[in-house]
């Protein structure tokens, strides 16, 4: 009786953990990349001044963006500005 309840709890816990990981990979990461692209465009255009920490953070987000050519180009331009 207790073993079955424990196994059911473990399965539900693993499914919840998988849902959280999938949400962060497929929803949060693309939103973060889009935000970094918008901020990088403003930095390159000279409209926005950001702190050194935020500049490095934006560069990191652009560097880890997958299959996004605009992010790669912006990352290259930010590296030249550095």
Low-confidence stretches: none
| β-sheet strand percentage | under 5%
Structural class: mainly alpha
Q: Roughly what is the average pLDDT, rounded to an integer?
A: 93
Sequence-ordered SSE layout with sheet pairings:
Elements lengths: L1 H44 L6 H12 L5 H13 L1
Helix pairs in contact: 1-2, 1-3, 2-3
Report on the structure:
There is one protein chain. The protein is mostly helical and 82 residues long. It has one domain (2-81). The chain has 3 helices and no strands.
Give a short overview.
With 82 residues, the protein is mainly alpha-helical.
List keywords for this structure.
single chain; 82 residues; mainly alpha; 3 helices; 84% helix
């Amino acid at each position: 009786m207790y073993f079955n309840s424990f196994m059911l709890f473990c399965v539900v816990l693993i499914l919840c953990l998988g849902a959280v990981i999938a949400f962060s990979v497929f929803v949060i990461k693309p939103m973060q990349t889009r935000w970094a692209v918008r901020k990088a465009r403003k930095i390159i255009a000279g409209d926005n001044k950001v702190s050194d920490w935020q500049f490095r953070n934006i560069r990191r987000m652009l560097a880890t963006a997958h299959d996004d050519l605009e992010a790669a180009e912006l990352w290259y331009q930010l590296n030249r500005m550095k």
